[in-house]
Amino acid sequence: MKKIKAMSAEKLYKFFIYFCLTIFALSILIPIGWAIMSAFKHKSEFYGNPWALPEGLYFENFVKAFTEAHMGEYFLNSLIITGLSLVILLIVAVPAAYVLARFEFKSNKFLNGLFSLGLFINVNYIVVPIFLLVLDGEKVVREIFSIAANISVFLDSRIVVSIIYASTALPFTIYLLTTYLKSISKAYEEAAYMDGASYLKTLIHVIIPMAKPSIITVILFNFLAFWNEYIIALTLLPNGSKTLPLGLVNLMQVQKTATDYGAMYAGLVIVMVPTIILYMLVQKKLTEGMSVGGIKE
């Protein structure tokens, strides 16, 4: 009887878990599917049943989004800023995490604690100080090089925005990479040192390949953060080089007035699809990176 009750309780527990996971999956898949479906509808179809399938594939919505709303230009800007931000971030974070995880020195604990404190700072709360620092830096550069007032130095600069994105992501990235690297046995490094490898060669040829799941996890999370970021882009890109989130907001405002909801949903799909594709490509590595791996010492 006890075994039967235990089996029944286990089945009930599994049913509850699968039921919750199914509801959670549907709560994500239904809005995504509905948005994609709406992107192919003619604007006249929105006045009928909103859940009805599109009568045809109205690709004109994407043409309007790319040409009239300049979503193609915004897409390229987002791609450049996000890619450059990730490159800067990895160049700084990977060596920093390696040093903090594998070497003992006086300020090691202090630096680890400092980066851990950075996890609790929300970027939205420090946008104004960042903006003021950028303005002050621009004034200094203008005075030194006698640059005309109508020429932007740091504002409307994709490089400056990329540096700020990378800087704000450093605490999370270094914390995650440091935690992962601490789990890797030092036997691999010792073997590399015995073969005459330098610290840099050991990092590039031994540590980075072993930390690939964690690095991919970092890339995915930060890609999503940079790709969808709005506040910093709105503040530091007031005139040109707008990113997709800024372009999407402008598109939504224009198309709501014109009641052209098809083009609005097409813009939403343009923003959404790259993140879905990236997640599908790195899903397995992401799962590995979320759990600490390596050989325990």
Description:
With 297 residues, the chain is mainly alpha-helical. It has a single domain, classed as MetI-like (MetI-like fold). It is built from 13 helices and no strands. The chain has helices at 2-38, 60-67, 71-102, 108-118, 127-145, 158-182, 187-194, 199-210, 212-228, 231-236, 244-258, 261-281, 283-290. The radius of gyration is 24 Å and the shape is flat. 26% of the residues are buried. The model is unreliable at 292-297 (pLDDT under 50).
Brief overview:
By secondary structure, this protein is mainly alpha-helical.
Number of helices: 13
The H-and-E topology, N to C, reads as HHHHHHHHHHHHH
Count of the domains: 1
Strand portion: under 5%
Helices, strands, pairings?
Layout: H1 2-38, H2 60-67, H3 71-102, H4 108-118, H5 127-145, H6 158-182, H7 187-194, H8 199-210, H9 212-228, H10 231-236, H11 244-258, H12 261-281, H13 283-290
Helix pairs in contact: 2-12, 3-6, 3-9, 3-11, 4-6, 6-9, 7-8, 9-12, 9-13, 11-12
